[in-house]
Structure of CGNR zinc finger domain-containing protein:
Amino acid sequence: MPFGHDMVYSLATVVELVNTSPSTGGDDRLADLATLRAFVEARQVSGITTLTPRDLGQVRLVREAFHRVFTAPDQPSAVRQLNALLSETRITPRLTEHDGHPLHVHYFAPDATLSEHLAADCGVALAHLLVEGEWERLRTCSAPDCDRVFVDESRNRSRVYCDSRTCGNRMHVAAYRARRRA
Ligand SMILES: [Zn+2]
Ligand SMILES: [Zn+2]
């Protein structure tokens, strides 16, 4: 994909975020402040010091808004869903080179909350993806019992499972067994 490192990183973050949702199958994996803190550390979300129950509620709302973008049935619906999210997001572009990273752009204000941070940076990354005509890369796993989302970064847009080692492998084994029975 013709996207820079920051954008690829933000897309990976939004995928991780959406896949904590019970909407993708399983339990809510942002169940409390401890799991929210673990998410912030795992994704190296910068500038976040305190987290409150209010942050947890707001992040869950943003997460569902992103889920609607990923699961939109067509490109115009994805655009509508993303515009709805962006219109509620305070966006403040700012050049920075924190923590030893080279100069890059943040889209959240310096005093942004966690949900504002995620909505701005991930929202802008998805906006660029849609502008590049890459809407089709926003996918939901094809395994029958998995609704996790992913961004298909393969050259020929051929990826159908959220994870080739888990769902992909599981489905190939099932197909192999079905052929052997036939
Ligand atoms: Zn940064
Ligand atoms: Zn899957």
About this structure: The chain has six helices and four strands. Residues 5-181 form a domain with the Jann2411-like fold fold (CATH 1.10.3300.10). The mean pLDDT is 93. The longest strand covers residues 94-96.
